[in-house]
Amino acid sequence: MEPGEEIALGIDQTLTQDATGTMVMLELEAMDVDHLETELSAQYVDHNLIQEDNKNPDDHLFLRSACNKWGIWFWPAGNGVSHPVHQERFGVPGKTLLGSDSHTPAAGAMGMLAIGAGGLDVAMAMAGESPTTWTCRRCGASSCGANSQSGAARRTSSSRCCDATTSTAASGASSNTTALGWTR
Length: 184
Fold this sequence. Notes:
Layout: E1 6-8, E2 13-17, H1 18-30, E3 40-44, H2 55-70, E4 73-75, H3 82-90, E5 96-99, E6 113-116, H4 119-126, E7 132-134, H5 151-156
Parallel strand pairs: 2-3, 2-5, 3-4, 5-6
Antiparallel strand pairs: 1-7
Helix pairs in contact: 1-2, 1-4
């Protein structure tokens, strides 16, 4: 690998929630995807819960049917918020997670490389297309991590320094999910 080289990230898990997941599932349908390439994908119903008309309940039925079609874990309404629930049930140090929820990066606390992204990016990862990032342009311990520039300077720097571009795979996700409202 050369400094500054673009690299593809293999995505192990995806997370979607009902406000963004409907578009992800529609994109999978439009791509005519037969099966998913991720180890685990999970759909949470935790954002659009108001049911003043038929729109949200219809979306939730569509999400459940899409999850059944592709073998995605479905977390129905009333069972928790997507990002902490995903961490608790499926967080595995060293795994990669791409989610269409802005709080997806919270799974970094579990040692995951967890990235929030748009719905199309998540659908593409589910279909097996790898998102890309860059290796650090500068080499050495001081160019990335604790000894580098301040966080604000690093974020605005054009040097594209990433603190985590590699991961070590660990064993699978929690098996204590069926009793907690999950269906697959």
